[in-house]
Every structure is written in structure tokens, then in C-alpha cells.
């Protein structure tokens, strides 16, 4: 640990991971640009560690227009090829193409619901679900809620949004708060 704070065990050992845990993970997000960022990053993580994605986060900002979904939705094949030359992102063609396709669906949801935020927060009645797992082993990889959210996103055309990815996304954007009891963020 770089300081004396007690955190959820997964966040210890790296200043980058600690900063993410301390300032972002589990904090309710309502800004659509940030929501698009996290749905993109969680999909990019599939099969990889979160640390890998955090290290490449700035590269994703550059590659995907600072996560402006309207701009990303207009990207085409030339943009895919340009993005795939960057060592600053996970260079996976399917994930890059899905980010652009997901942006198109994201924009449609914004048009239908007024914002993606309104759409997603409707799944929990507008309020975060606060869990108090006794330990990391009690935190599920997915839940009925993440199953439902995933199915809805897939039905609308999203890719890389399976239930496990959706649960990690819901934790990241504060729909679910899974800070463990010993963590200084528990109850904050």
C-alpha cells in the first residue's frame, strides 16, 4: 500500500489501481460520456486484467474521441484501421469494431430515453444497490440484475456486454456498491 488507507483487497499494490478504487469505483455516474467510457473499457477488459485496461485508458481517450459517443458512432473502416495501429489500446479488431457499433446503439438509447444515464438507472429505480460483502469471495461475478441488463443491451445490439462484464460495469459506475467492510470507502 502506498499509504495507510485500508481498501478492498483487489485495489492494493498499485498506485493506479488505488487511485481508481479511491476516486471512481462504486461512485454513482450520471454523465453519459463517462458511462460510454466505462462500457467501452469494461468490454475491452474481456479476457484481460483491469490493470491492463487502466494502463491503456488514456490511449482509449485519444483513439475514441474522448469517449464522445456521437463522434465514435460516425467512425468507419478507415478509423478502425487507424485505431488498430495504436499500441496505446488493446488492439483487438472485434473490440474496436464493437466500440463503434456500441456507440451507434448508445446514441439510439440516448434519443429514446433522453440519456443513457436515465436508461440504465431505471434498472434500479434510480438508486444504487449497496451491498456489504464480508469479503471479496462474497462478491458475485454476475447477478439477476446484470443478467437482465446484459440481455437488454444485447437485444438492442451491444457487443461485449455479457452478464459478467455488465456486473463489473455496474460496480464501476456505482449502480452497485460492493466495497467490503474494512474498506475506508465502505459507507461513503
Would you write up a description of this structure?
The structure is a single chain. With 188 residues, this protein is mainly α. It has a single domain (9-177), classed as Endonuclease III, domain 1, CATH 1.10.340.30. The chain is 53% helix and 2% strand. The protein has ten helices and two strands. It has helices at 15-23, 32-45, 50-55, 57-63, 69-73, 77-84, 93-113, 116-121, 144-156, 163-172, and strands at residues 129-130, 176-177. Strands 1-2 form a two-stranded parallel sheet. The longest helix is centred in the middle third of the chain and has 21 residues, at 93-113. The protein is globular. The two termini are 20 Å apart. The mean pLDDT is 95.
CATH class: Mainly Alpha
Strand sequence of the main sheet, in spatial order? 1-2
> What is the overall silhouette?
globular
Average predicted confidence as pLDDT = 95
Give me the count of strands: 2
**Unreliable stretches covering 5 or more consecutive residues:** none
